[in-house]
Amino acid sequence: MFHYEFEFIHPFSDGNGRMGRLWQTLILSRWHPLFLSLPLESVIKEHQQQYYQALEQADQQADSTPFIRFMLSVIARTLAQNAPVNAPVNAPVSRQVDVSELKTPDAIVALLTANPDLTRQQLADAIGKDLRTIARALAKLQQAGKITRIGSDKTGHWEVHP
Fold it and tell me: Do 71 and 127 fall within a single domain?
């Protein structure tokens, strides 16, 4: 939210995006130090056009939601590409997980192992599949006893079983 608001007020003639992303990283790192080691800037640069589109859409709607959704998808994608598969959440990032080489169910398990709070939409964005494909894969994983949903869809999280 801070990142969007900083971009919105646009206090400098140049460098507002870099400063917004820097502050975002610093704020997120206070919540969890993992954010200091994630290359969010690189992923944003790879998707720069969508970054600007999300900012413009949020401005037009006078609602930060499109931008926040974009940033959450970038964070999920970055976590998926950089988080260790079976590491606990507090573990330092040491090896990359490239979900593009995994089958959808395996990619889901890898992502949920790294972050059990991911939503279906965030999984879809990180893997590059549509929401229905993710929903079907999640249902099969649940039926196979590989994952369990704890709590509601909005406030719950996933539990991955070995």
Answer: no
The pLDDT profile of the chain, 162 residues, written as one tens digit per residue, is: 888 888 888 888 888 888 888 888 888 888 777 777 788 888 888 889 999 999 999 999 999 999 999 999 888 888 877 765 444 444 443 334 456 678 899 889 988 988 888 889 889 888 889 999 999 999 999 999 999 999 988 888 999 997
Residues 5 and 73 occupy one common structural domain: yes
Q: Are residues 27 and 76 in the same domain?
A: yes
Does residue 87 fall inside a structural domain? no
Range of the domain at 33: 1-82
Q: Is residue 71 included in any domain, yes or no? A: yes
3-state SS record for the chain: CHHHHHHHHCCCCCCHHHHHHHHHHHHHHHHCHHHHCCCHHHHHHHCHHHHHHHHHHHHHHCCCHHHHHHHHHHHHHHHHHHCCCCCCCCCCCCCCCCHHHCCHHHHHHHHHHHCCCCCHHHHHHHHCCCHHHHHHHHHHHHHCCCEEEECCCCCCEEEECC
